[in-house]
Input
Amino acid sequence: MTDDLMDVVMSVDGATVSARVRARLLLSDFLREHAAAGGVHVACGHGVCGACTIVVDGVAVRACLMLAVQADGCAVQTIASLPLFEAGGAPEIDGLTRLQRAFRDHHALQCGYCTPGLLVSTAKFLAEFKSPNRAQILDHLNGHLCRCSGYANIIAAIESVLQ
Amino acid sequence: MKPAPFRYVRPGSVAEAVGLLATHATTGRLLAGGQSLMPLLSRRVERPSLVIDINRIAGLDEIEILPTRIRMGALVRQEQALWSPIVHRDVAGLAAALAWVANPVVRQRGTVIGNLVTNSPGAELPAVAMALGAEFVVRRVNGEEIVAAETLLGPCRGLAADAMITHVLWPRRPAHVGFYEVARREGHAPVVSSLVTLTGEDCRVALSGVCPTGLACPSVARMIAQRLPRVPEVAELAGALREDLLGSVYSDAYSSARYRLEVAPVVSQRAARLMALQIGSA
Output
């Protein structure tokens, strides 16, 4: 079967990106190849690890579980837009948002591969649940694999920014 | 891996979607939340020639209150149902089960109906739909019919290739509920899950992961109801469960049939205990 080519236009971190793409192109690959969004990390490629988590029209989604053509006409935000959607507007210090500083200060990352996806979904999670309990934080972290940290430091970083 | 080539269409109405299904019955696939289908496409387990994206069909994302039922459209997301006060009040068993499904990001995109119709062995929701007596609105080019969840998700009959489930209907039945599951990793498909609900004297039990499809367990339910406010012993529940089994017990590379049969009564007892605690504190 030959590939079906389709035109898509979307906003990626505020810039308009248009391209003619294969219908089967995953949104994660589109963002890296056509929008130079290197902060979209691709790891498992089938929705298990959470590394490619982005925001589409205000909702956190896994970019590998959407087709690029499905985001036609949508507003996509990656880790590069974190200061815009992290709760409280997050005045930047050292070029980092409050959540990013918490991750740094608690050693919540080592290799950093899972970190952009974690920051994106955690920022959206905290925007919705202002003061989550430990069980809710663990439910949230179920969506992310981190093979370095053992999660304890990630939990500590998240709890440090509450209220 | 990446998906094999396919054509992509984005119909604007249910009529258009079922029309496309009718002409591509064996090779067309509906795409809603994509949290089950997209991994299958990427792993090339599924290789449809046409992907029919229903995400922009208007009106399918509503949770409506009917006189005796709650009606959910095919685009109602799992997270939307989980946090719906109507669902909590009238279909508490569904809300209890949804809290154990995946994680918030997946639930925000994944749909209730998509999870049901994928009907993976072990999945929580199909068993819950069967035990609670949910029904599906099944649409085809030549009309619409209402089919019981137990019929459509049970071992005998699947969904016709040219049919689309547009809505699921849940009986409105405020209940005390308990839900428990054992999974290799929380947030992933359970080995066995169990829902126990009680409305008046009407006790229902749903088990997933014991048979290849979900299982409603009337004998287990009867025993739990009789013993309240106490909870039956595991050995007694195991005996009752044997009466409810339909055909062979499921096994896969991770959990043998024997292990599942050992875990199921334990999980049921814990779910029953959670329900009994809820009654006690009411």
Q: What stands out?
A: The CA atoms of residues 203 and 213 of chain B lie 20 Å apart.
